[in-house]
Amino acid sequence: MAAAVLWACASESASTEATTSTSAATTGAGGGTVDGAELSAPDYFAAKVFPEFSLTCGACHTSEENCVPKFMENEPSPTYELMRQHPGLIVPPDSSNLRLYGAHSGPNLTATQDETVRIWLSKEFPDDTGENSQRLALRALGDCMSETDYEDSAFNALAHQQTADAGPCGACHKTGEAGTWIGFNAADMYDKTKKLPYIQRLFRAKFDGSTFVGFGPSTRLFDKPEFAAQCGERHPQGLIDPQKRVATETYIQDALDAYASGNCQ
Ligand code: HEC
Ligand code: HEC
What percent of the chain has pLDDT over 90? Predict the structure, then answer.
C-alpha cells in the first residue's frame, strides 16, 4: 500500500536532526570560496535553492491539495514571493522552518540542501547575530518540558490511541516516523519529544514579520488523524479520545508556562 512506501522514506530521514557542516561547504576543502558567493540573495535562491526544492518539495508544495500548505510555484520568482508571504520561511537561518521542520509527510533536507538554504538566508539577513534564534529557543523550551509534568499529564497514553482501522498511533510512530514520536516506551517518548525535529509537532513558532517571537501550542497531533478524510485519506483516521487530548494539551501548556516564567534549568 502507498503509505508503507512513504513510510520507509520518512523514517529514514526522521532521525537526522538537520545538522550543519558549515566549514566544509563555505570554504571548501582547499579553502576556496563558496559557490555562488557573488550572487545576491534572490539570485542565489533562484540559482541554488529553487532547483533543489523544485525536485524534493515541489511535488506537494505547489498545490493546496491534500491539505498541503502552498508556498511554491513552478518558477523561482513567484515561489520567492509566496515564501515571503508564508510566516517563518524567509527569516534568519537559525529560525527558519524550512531548516527546522524536519521529516514530515515530506523528507528532511539533506545536509547539502540544508547548507544551501543556510547560505541563502544568511545573504537575506547579513546582520543577524544568531541570538534569539528559533533553534536556540527550541532548546530552551525543551529544557522546560519536565519529567514530572510529563508523567502527571499522562501524555504517553497517546501511543495507545486507536485509529479507525490501522491500529494505535504507537504502532506506526514508535521510532519517530514522519517526524512524529509517539511511542509505547514512555522514557524514550519523553526524551525524543523534547528535541528537534519531534518537538516541532507540539509547538508552533510565532513570527512578527521576519522575527521569531515565541511559541504557541500546535494541534498537529490531533489534526492529522482527525482531518485525514479531508486530506486525501493518506493517513489513518481517528478521533482523539478526550482524556488523551487533555493530557497532550496539558503537557504542552505546562511547558509553555514554564518557558514563559523563564525558570527552567
Ligand atoms: C509528500 C508531500 C510533501 C513533500 C514532498 C514535502 N512536504 Fe512539506 N508538507 C507537507 C504537508 C502535508 C504539510 C502540512 C502538514 C504539516 O504541517 O506537517 C507540510 C508542511 C511543511 C512545512 C510547515 C509549513 C507551516 O507553515 O506549517 C514546511 C516548512 C515544509 N513542509 C517544508 C518542506 C520542504 C522544505 C520540503 C522539501 C525538502 C517538503 N516540505 C516536502 C507535504 C510535503
Ligand atoms: C498505519 C500507520 C499509522 C498510524 C496508525 C498512525 N500514523 Fe501518523 N503517519 C503515518 C504515515 C505513513 C505518515 C507520513 C505520511 C503522511 O503524513 O501522510 C504519518 C504522519 C503523521 C504526522 C506528521 C505529518 C503531518 O502531516 O503532520 C502526524 C502528526 C501523525 N502522523 C500523527 C498520528 C497520530 C496522532 C496517530 C494516532 C491517532 C497516528 N498518526 C497514527 C502512519 C500512521
Answer: 80
